[in-house]
Design a protein that fits this description.
With 779 residues, the chain is an alpha/beta fold. It has four domains: 37 residues, no CATH class; 280 residues, Rossmann fold (3-Layer(aba) Sandwich); 237 residues, Dimethylsulfoxide Reductase, domain 2; 150 residues, Beta Barrel (Barwin-like endoglucanases), CATH 2.40.40. The chain is 28% helix and 17% strand. It contains 25 helices and 32 strands. A seven-stranded mixed β-sheet has the order 6-17-18-19-4-5-32. It has a six-stranded mixed beta barrel with strand order 24-28-25-27-26-31. Strand 2 and strand 3 form a beta hairpin. Helix 2 crosses helix 18, helix 9 packs parallel to helix 14 and helix 12 packs across helix 13. It is globular and about 75 Å long. The structure holds ligand MGD (2 copies) and molybdenum atom. One ligand MGD binds next to helix 7. One of its GO terms (molecular function) is transferase activity. Pfam families: Molybdopterin, Molybdopterin_N, Molydop_binding. This is Asp-tRNA(Asn)/Glu-tRNA(Gln) amidotransferase GatCAB subunit C.
Length: 779
């Protein structure tokens, strides 16, 4: 009989309750969540998993030869060390690079430190590794070279900011799910509205509402159209329809629809006149007056593979009722990724229904669990990060370029900039050897700095490219405040277990280093983790009290249960704009939705959305050699690479390896059967996966989600004579291209890649278990 009490906790994939059960945890979702994510159960056996790091580790080559560029990173071994010695070594190296001695003015020593440290880390308002790292680097180095935008949405973020206004408009604004449930006649969903990514929300979610809202809408007669290479990018809903254009051709499909709206005079000219600017510059392109190519449905059919009649029918249906146009992040994580997002906005503007409840446009509704939900009326706790006095930054996905090419020129948002010269990389709470493209190139890039320091709870491939690794606690081993934008509960994250081995909280690691560098007081302000949590909690507590709502003091909150947070009843930004386009103008140059955008034209891209042929698509020359479009989307059973060893993630694998899905027709043509081990390859490398056949995958597409822990091996494919590098665990980022989405955003373009697929005959190389990704020697 287990009579241990349940405690509350939270994660990016949902709030939950848990209690000790043997060496693991028994986990239950909150009763209030109508559709909890199974990913919460990955934590059950994580606390003492063999992949955990229990002691600091230092790379042998770094210990023997000192700091400096080193090609051995990624294939070296690690020595365990006690905390005092490891902290002294790290502090010594930071001091050598200028930490702790800040000039009064002029360049800061942090100008040679990359602290962008992109990654999702864990939920919790205080123990957020990036925030703690940034505060640390600001304290000891006077700042750091940072990163801007996200892997999620760089191309979309940049273009939407310019043509649609601030980022909050494009992601966190109406329509809300309940409006779709009640009012939409049609939802035209580019990239679908997949329940898979909507399991997750940054900072956590206490309720998953999308499935219920879509089911209510469909029962009422709303028609959902899933435009995607995968039909399960939409749940099975009555009346739903699947349209599967060639990946990366959505712009052509939208242009064909736009052409039909023009031809049939179904365009809302009043809306265009009141709320947009530059349609007159776009129309000649649509008609073919500027380039001799009318963007007719037949033209679009040849590019997309969707019959012209279907394109006309979709356009007519969209104009016939209240239509919501939704576009996911995934479409812009690609070459020329700005174009489909911008064109979807133009298509929605031509339909001109933005004023109607349940109609209009959203970007990323289907990409995260916190979209389509009302914002909060109170501010959330927040840790101050201090001031970064280093002005330099990179667009986040240019990490390999930065390390490989100091001083090189590149463009971003129309400006020419130059890469900094980086001597130290400090990463906490991210896994670039999961998230970045062309991972062999990233290995070459990680060979360049003098020193790389990483904090993680587990021995990831990123840790295996570091010089000094500090073992961090898992979220479950510490207390924190769980809260997130658009979520109506604040959750006490109660401790569920003791720290593994000698693992320490990120905060304590930074505090110990700061003290060694003479900056302890500046970093900690004399507070421990609990003291900080109490301090940052006050902001929310006071706001609740001012509104006359229950506002327990911190100790009672941590001992008690979830606290309800009030929702804002302010009309959404777009509602205000639609009510008064002059008084509530959008923060764009024209104050309106920009269909033609002079700023983008000045930055060197066409001034309105256009179809541009990418290099890696099924209609291009490269498809002769690499005939499959790899869709590397977000994984079903985990968040990115986190807790990949958990039971829910492992269930999605076969024989310990990631599964790739393909249409049965393609498999029959290639002589493949379900369960075969297959090699996906292109000029950048190879990945092994286990084949699953599914009619839910478009022909000539292969889906291999991200998240497998990177395990490159030099192998000779059966029947061949030359070795190549192959990830035996099935991480698709050995295959993806490191090119920027465009000269405007330089965003991540990792979603779509061309590959060839063959069967791995004969003896199959074993996958590498999680515990062996980081080669450790006993101390
Ligand atoms: N090909 C391709 N690539 C992609 C994508 C794609 O669609 N296709 N998607 C991209 C997107 S959208 C994203 S957001 C990125 C995600 O990339 P990341 O955010 O880098 O991936 P995570 O696996 O979440 O990495 C988080 C790391 O932090 C560690 N961690 C968790 N909690 C703590 C903590 O408290 N302290 C410390 N020190 N460490 C902690 C985890 O163990 C893990 O190693 O991937 C991108 N990569
Ligand atoms: N379970 C789970 N959920 C997650 C995450 C996770 O790792 N695991 N990560 C979270 C993060 S950080 C982010 S940023 C979001 C990402 O959210 P998204 O980027 O929206 O999610 P993806 O799964 O990458 O892509 C959604 C679908 O887009 C489709 N797609 C790909 N290319 C094209 C195309 O050219 N045209 C069309 N029409 N469709 C295309 C693919 O079939 C894919 O399944 O997900 C979040 N949610
Ligand atoms: Mo993301």
């Amino acid at each position: 009989m287990n009579d241990a009490p349940f405690r509350f906790h939270s994660s990016h994939w949902g709030a939950f309750r848990a209690r000790a059960q043997g060496a693991g945890l028994e986990i239950r979702p909150l009763d209030s969540d109508p559709d909890p994510s199974p990913i919460i159960h990955n934590l059950a056996t994580a606390l003492d998993h063999p992949a955990r790091l229990g002691r600091p580790l230092v790379r042998r080559g770094w210990l023997a030869d000192g700091p400096g560029p080193d090609d051995r990173r990624g294939s070296d071994t690690y020595v365990e060390m006690d905390w005092d010695r490891a902290l002294d070594l790290a502090a010594g190296e930071l001091a050598r690079l200028g930490a702790g001695t800040l000039p009064e003015a002029g360049p800061m020593p942090g100008a040679h430190v990359f602290g962008g440290s992109y990654g999702w880390s864990s939920a919790g308002r205080f123990h957020h590794a990036q925030g703690l790292l940034h505060r640390f680097l600001n304290s000891v180095f006077g700042g750091y070279v940072s990163s801007v935008n996200t892997y999620s949405s760089a191309a979309g973020e940049v273009v939407m900011e310019i043509v649609y206004g601030a980022a909050s408009l494009m992601t966190k604004d109406a329509p809300y799910w309940d409006e779709i449930a009640e009012h939409s006649d049609m939802v035209l969903a580019f990239g679908g509205l997949p329940l898979r990514p909507m399991q997750v929300a940054p900072g956590g979610a206490s309720a998953h509402v999308a499935r219920g809202a879509m089911e209510r809408a469909a029962r009422r007669g709303c028609r959902f159209v899933c435009v995607s290479p995968l039909s399960d990018d939409l749940p099975d809903l009555p009346g739903a329809r699947w349209i599967a254009p060639r990946p990366a051709t959505d712009v052509a499909l939208m242009l064909g629809m736009a052409w039909h709206l023009e031809e049939q005079d179904l365009v809302n000219r009043d809306y265009l006149a009141r709320y947009t600017s530059g349609y007159d510059r776009f129309l000649p392109y649509l008609k073919g007056e500027t380039d001799g190519i009318p963007k007719t449905p037949s033209w679009a059919a040849a590019i997309t593979g969707i019959p012209a009649a279907t394109i006309r029918e979709l356009a007519a249906q969209a104009a016939a009722g209240r239509t919501h146009v939704s576009v996911t992040y995934s479409l812009q994580r690609a070459e020329n990724g700005e174009q489909p997002i911008w064109m979807a906005l133009v298509l929605a503007s031509m339909l001109g229904q933005g004023k109607l409840k349940g109609a209009g446009f959203t970007y990323s509704l289907g990409s995260m669990g916190d979209r389509g939900r009302r914002p909060l009326a109170v501010p959330l706790p927040r840790l101050p990060q201090g001031r970064n006095r280093v002005p330099d930054f990179i667009p986040v996905a240019r990490i390999s370029e930065l390390l490989l090419h100091p001083g090189k020129a590149y463009t971003y948002k129309g400006e020419t900039r130059h890469y900094a010269d980086i001597r130290l990389v400090y990463w906490a709470g991210g896994n670039p050897f999961h998230h970045h493209q062309d991972l062999q190139r990233l290995t070459r890039a990680f060979a360049r700095p003098d020193t790389i320091i990483v904090h993680d709870s587990v021995g990831t491939a990123t840790a295996a490219h570091a010089d000094i690794i500090f073992p961090a606690t898992l979220t479950a081993e510490r207390e924190d405040i769980g809260a997130a934008g658009n979520d109506p509960l604040m959750i006490p994250m109660q401790r569920l277990g003791q720290p593994f081995g000698e693992a320490r909280d990120d905060y304590d690691i930074f505090a110990a280093l700061a003290r060694r560098l003479g900056c302890g007081e500046g970093y900690t302000e004399g507070l421990d983790a609990r003291g900080w949590q109490e301090r940052i909690y006050q902001r929310t507590q006071e706001a609740l009290a001012r509104m006359g709502l229950p506002a327990p003091d911190f100790a009672d909150f941590m001992r008690g249960g979830p606290v309800a947070l009030p929702l804002s009843d302010t009309p959404s930004r777009m509602d205000r704009f639609h009510a008064d386009p002059e008084g509530s103008a959008l923060p764009t140059d024209s104050g309106r939705i920009e269909i033609f955008c002079p700023r983008i034209a000045r930055a060197g891209l066409p001034g309105h959305p256009v179809w541009m042929e990418p290099e890696e698509w099924l209609g291009g020359a490269l498809a002769d050699r690499f005939p499959f479009q790899l869709v590397a989307n977000q994984p079903q059973g985990k968040l990115h690479s986190q807790l990949d060893f958990g039971a829910v993630s492992m269930q999605t694998k076969r024989r310990g390896r990631e599964v790739a899905r393909m249409n049965p027709t393609d498999a029959a043509r290639l002589g493949l059967t379900g369960g075969d081990t297959i090699l996906l390859r292109n000029d950048r490398g190879g990945a092994l996966a286990v084949l699953e056949l599914s009619p839910r995958v478009r022909e000539r597409v292969i889906q291999l989600s991200t998240g497998a822990w990177y395990a490159p091996r030099r192998l000779t494919p059966p029947g061949e004579s030359r070795e190549m590098t192959i990830c035996v665990n099935g991480n698709p980022n050995i295959l993806t291209s490191d090119r920027g989405a465009s000269i405007l955003s330089q965003g991540c373009a990792g979603q779509l890649t061309l590959v060839d697929v063959t069967k791995w005959t004969g003896e199959v190389p074993e996958p590498v278990p999680h515990r062996d990704i980081l080669p450790r020697l006993p101390g």
